[in-house]
Amino acid sequence: MVGAIGRRVLANLLPSRRLRVSTRKVKSPISRYNDRLDDGRPDRSRPVTALSIAILAAPPSQAPLPAVSRDDRLTALTDRRRQRVLALLRQDPSRCWRSRDIAYHLGDITLGTMYRQLSRWAESGLILKIGSGLYTATTHSQTPLPRPRKR
User: Fold this and answer.
1) Which of 33, 35, 59, 138 is most buried, taking the most CB atoms under 10 A from its CB?
2) Averages of pLDDT over each 10 residues, the chain, 151 residues
3) Which top-level group of life is the source organism from (predicted)?
4) Pair type for strands 97-98 and 134-137
5) SS in 3 state form for the chain?
């Protein structure tokens, strides 16, 4: 059921767009894309006279999907990292560790990620933040305190 507007639109449709079979030319001479690569395509548009379609067979076998989700892998990675950080802090409980020193000792983490992880663990009470970028072990680092709820 097409109304009056629908009938007028359908009666005055635009012609279909021609197929583009060559690369577009960049018209600005100072463009960094001005030099056209020699990729085997024609310089000018050409009419399409024939079309061939090749159907390829499926690959013999595909890799199985992972048994563990990405979130589970990240959680396991974070848990292992937390245990490594806690072990490092417990080696000398009186020492104040800088974020970059902890990241350097772990060796497989970026400094930005280390900052975020340590801040979260300090907020939860797992470790103590005693200054800007300074962390130390807590006496109760075995069990973290519950996180405060945001309101």
Assistant:
1) 138
2) 86 82 64 63 74 82 75 81 88 85 84 86 87 79 50 55
3) Bacteria
4) antiparallel
5) CCCHHHHHHHHCCCCCCCCCCCCCCCCCCCCCCCCCCCCCCCCCCCCCCCCCCCCCCCCCCCCCCCCCCHHHHHHHHHHHHHHHHHHHHHHCCCCCEEHHHHHHHHCCCCHHHHHHHHHHHHHCCCEEEEECCEEEECCCCCCCCCCCCCC
**Token pair recorded at residue 116:** 């975020």
Q: What are phi and psi of 24, to 5 degrees?
A: -75, 145
Helices 70-91 + 111-123 axis angle, to 10 = 80
Contact, 99 vs 115, CB < 8 A? yes
Q: Which CATH class is domain 70-137?
A: mainly alpha
CB-facing half-sphere around the CA of 14: CA atoms within 13 A: 3
- Please state, in angstroms and rounded to a whole number, the distance separating the CA atoms of residues 120 and 142: 16
Q: Which residue has the tokens 């006279």?
A: 49
State which amino acid sits at residue 118: L
